[in-house]
Write a structure and sequence with these properties.
about 325 residues; five-stranded parallel β-sheet; binds NADP nicotinamide-adenine-dinucleotide phosphate; FAD/NAD(P)-binding domain; elongated; single chain; 2 domains; about 30% strand; alpha/beta; 17 strands
């Protein structure tokens, strides 16, 4: 690797040539880094924020085999420590664009550097989807949130609304219910999409209620959120709340790779055999892909497979 004056974490590195660049900082990227380091592959991981991606924003993970329960952020820290123990190289930058002028080289631009990588693993995950209703952007950070793990303590003994019916909405509602005086879950259908076990737990929560077949029309307030206007089966209604947590799915973070590999109409990376993309030297792993199950356990498995696929390709090319 030819990193001349790179300063880790400062966003002032100068990039360079590298065999493998791993874009992302979530479980898929962290597992890819661990496996790449153990294979002895010259690599660098480009992560934007703290390690863990969306998993780090999950209050409690209870379905990672072998670990009864752990905060998402703690699991991510352990994954990063383990990768670093084996020689994982991390830089805190944001990938902004990628191109491939030569068939076997990818140019990766970040907010502060340019890298030339022989192989790239796209593991940039996904970001929360928005409702797209009036008031959502206006009150973001002033009552509207996409992260219960980060913001729940601000809503101690306050009235909170959660929008959505998937695993994230239900799990994070259970976390919020420990803080809020009252929690209202608003779901557009009459059935949760979440794991049945989680749904049952939420329905037996004492300070929670669920409004089925209901959608959000707008979010209102002054300095902060004061109420949400809802469309219910019985007509329009206004519910006074202090906070609104939006969990209506995720959008893959694939914008910087749009010109590099084939994407599906929903923005996910098109994959073959789990981790292969339309370009031989570009692999993809985790929530950014079109693979169905989106869990920490599948993300880490993808990351390991992607690093192993790079090692295979490097062996075929005589690079290792
Ligand atoms: P999701 O499973 O896609 O659920 C999104 C929810 O939001 C659905 O209930 C959906 O309604 C609703 N929704 C979508 N657009 C909406 C809109 N415009 N207005 C109102 N409601 C809307 O997303 P997620 O919960 O973030 O989970 C993403 C992935 O991560 C899933 O594969 C999930 O299993 C996984 N995950 C797993 C765990 C775990 O602990 N096992 C935790 C978090 C996430 P419909 O139901 O009507 O479609």
């Amino acid at each position: 690797m030819d990193f001349k004056t790179g300063i880790i974490g400062s966003g002032t590195s100068v990039g360079g040539d590298v065999d493998l660049l791993i874009a992302g900082g979530g479980p898929a990227a962290l597992a890819a880094a661990l496996y790449a380091a153990r294979y002895g592959i010259d690599h660098v991981v480009i992560e934007s924020y703290q390690p863990g991606g969306q998993a780090a924003l999950t209050a409690l993970i209870e379905n990672y085999p072998g670990i009864m329960e752990i905060a998402g952020g703690d699991l991510a820290e352990k994954m990063k420590e383990q990768a670093e123990k084996w020689g994982g190289v991390f830089r805190m930058e944001t990938v902004t664009s990628t191109t491939s002028r030569e068939e076997d080289l990818v140019e990766v631009k970040t907010d502060s550097a340019v890298y030339n990588a022989k192989y790239l693993i796209i593991a940039t995950g996904a970001a929360p989807a928005k409702l797209g209703v009036p008031g959502e952007d206006k009150f973001y950070g002033r009552g509207v949130s996409y992260c219960a793990t980060c913001d729940a303590p601000f809503f101690k003994n306050k009235r909170v609304m959660v929008v959505g019916g998937g695993d994230s909405a239900v799990k994070e509602s259970l976390h919020l219910a420990d803080f809020a005086s009252h929690l209202t879950v608003v779901h557009r259908r009459n059935k949760f999409r979440a794991e049945p076990y989680l749904g049952k737990k939420l329905l037996s929560c004492d300070n929670c209620d669920v409004m089925w077949n209901t959608t959000v029309k707008s979010i209102e307030g002054g300095d902060g959120v004061e109420a949400v206007v809802l469309n219910t089966p019985d007509g329009e209604t206004r519910v006074e709340v202090d906070g609104v947590f939006v969990y209506v799915g995720r959008r893959p973070s694939t914008e910087p790779f749009r010109e590099l590999v084939d994407l599906n109409p929903d923005g996910t990376v098109k994959t073959v055999n789990v981790v292969h993309t339309s370009r031989k030297n570009v692999l993809a792993a985790g929530d950014v892909t079109d693979n169905e199950l989106r869990q920490v356990v599948t993300a880490v498995a993808d990351g390991a497979r992607a690093a192993a696929a790079v090692f295979d390709l490097m062996q075929q090319e005589g690079d290792v």
